[in-house]
Amino acid sequence: xxxPKVIKDLVAAQNNFDSAAYAKCFSETAVVYDExxxxxxxxxxxxWIADSNERxxxxxxxxxxxxxxxxxxxxxxxxxxxxxxxxILNYRLKITGGLIEALEITG
Length: 107
Hints:
Elements: H1 5-15, H2 19-23, E1 26-34, E2 37-40, H3 41-56, E3 59-67, E4 72-79, E5 87-96, E6 99-106
């Protein structure tokens, strides 16, 4: 599967539990929505993913990508220390200028 560079970088950072590299995939003003919470800006995103990595130790294996003019939806088998693992999650991304502006993670 041919993924955009920023999505490849995001998956690699997640699978290496590298919260700093993960956060660098986002713009300074990006927004992430996950588990009913919103995380604003690169610093909050880095703190959120560091906490998530510690709690869940989740890894991602991309299984599909849908792209249109305004967003990309990455489907990934996500495995870790959480009930129901592994699960297919949808990562709805808005990418501008090679950086993620918005990410919403849903089941």
